[in-house]
Amino acid sequence: MRTGTVQRETRETQIQLAFHADGTGMAEIKTGVGFFDHMLTGFAVHSGFDLTVSCKGDLQVDCHHTIEDIGICLGMAFRQALADKNGIARYGTFTIPMDEALASCSVDIGGRPYLVFNAEFGDYRLGDMDSAMVEEFFRAFAMNAGVTLHINLYYGKNDHHKAEAIFKAFAHALKAAVKMESSGILSSKGTL
Known about the structure:
- This protein starts with a strand and ends in a 14-residue tail after the last helix.
- A hairpin with a 3-residue loop joins strand 1 and strand 2.
- It has four helices and ten strands.
- The strands form three sheets. It has a four-stranded mixed β-sheet, covered by helices on one side. A four-stranded mixed β-sheet has the order 5-6-10-7. Strands 8-9 form a two-stranded antiparallel sheet.
- The longest helix is centred in the C-terminal third of the chain and has 20 residues, at 159-178.
- Helix 2 packs parallel to helix 3.
- The chain has one domain (3-178): Imidazole glycerol phosphate dehydratase, domain 1 (Ribosomal Protein S5, domain 2, 2-Layer Sandwich).
- Helices cover 34% and strands 31% of the residues.
- By secondary structure, it is of the alpha+beta class.
């Protein structure tokens, strides 16, 4: 079973997270940041991954620590779940239109963490979430999951639509990359 669980406690956040790569898209998300809950729920539904997140964070400061630390935990849980990369497609790319916004995500589950993030947001806030935290979430995920992520927002006007297109493209790209396709490791080296 491809699952990962993480419990992480710091002075800023207390997080419990469970991830199941072969799920049904079930989401139980309680981060204290409503817009982020909406993004993570959409991620679970569109990827087909089961995701449970419970977080108590220092939201009296702002949402930064909560969102970044959840990115860390999701990356760690993903890495646990996909520790045996045997048979996976490894790569995934997907483009999502969300009304006037168009975003794509390409992923390589190759063990080399890297983030390319080409997206700009006009508004400072997305509900109760700082728009700058979209990039920070994906950076924390990529570094802790050991994956390469390329995220490109081609255009869009509504920041809600831009963020949602990005999260959904991410979901579908990961779904494609973790799909079981054959036996063996997809690498000329024979290992990742």
